[in-house]
Amino acid sequence: MQNTEKNIIVFDVETKKTFDEVGGRDHFDKLGISYVGVYSYAQQKMFGFFEKDLPVLEKILLAERPLLIGFNSLHFDVPVMQPYFSKLNLSLLPHLDILKEIEKTLGHRLKLDSVAQATIFSGKSGDGLDAIRWYREGDLESLAKYCLEDVRITRDVYEFGLRQGKLYYHSGGEKVPIDISWAKQPTILAQLQEAFKKHQQLDIEYFEVDENNHAEIVPRRIEILNMENERSFEAYCYKKNNKTKFLVSKVWKIEETGNTFAHQESLF
């Protein structure tokens, strides 16, 4: 399989031990893998691999040679996984480490939870120490669920950046944008601007967020009345039957309906 848009795997690794238990951060090979979570774009589903199943994962990666996507994956996940793979050099596969891209832009690192909360309004359910505890307690169901949830979050952060051309994090009470390198053109902002110029009706998926920062992605059919700036726009919303202000950063997806409209803002 060629490295196409569908030949992508998002992954996350959980370990059996901490760095303190193996003598420091130079001993990735001693951490041991408890679970690897994977999302395959080719099959559009999640998969999980316990330590005993890693030879199967190696065969898949050898056959497909996908683009690997992770968060802190070049610094952590890859060196932890490599000792398990005798036939595959993971450094030879194409790779997108989201944290590395963030660090290039900001000059410092961020936690996945920080980026996810600000970008897709979804946070992590635990941390690596919880995963180690679940492994040791034999609670493999909780271990797998946690790891696959991290994979989902990483995938959704990647997809947001793909569509929007930026991610976000909170600093000083403000939502701060992070420009990223893997955006697909045209971005959502560019699509909104073009639809406004051409009076195109759109179907969008939009993050509606409550006061507790819990979000739901909802469908909305809209007609853009005013592109106020690059951060917000006003549109007639069919669902609400009124003029509504939308934030560009909360638009998840856009589809053109093929219809145009002739509404004038003065009517509202």
Automatic annotation (TrEMBL):
Molecular functions per Gene Ontology: nucleic acid binding
Domain YprB ribonuclease H-like: 33-159
Record-linked SUPFAM superfamilies: Ribonuclease H-like
Organism domain of life: Bacteria
Protein name: YprB ribonuclease H-like domain-containing protein
Species the sequence originates in: Candidatus Kerfeldbacteria bacterium RIFOXYB2_FULL_38_14
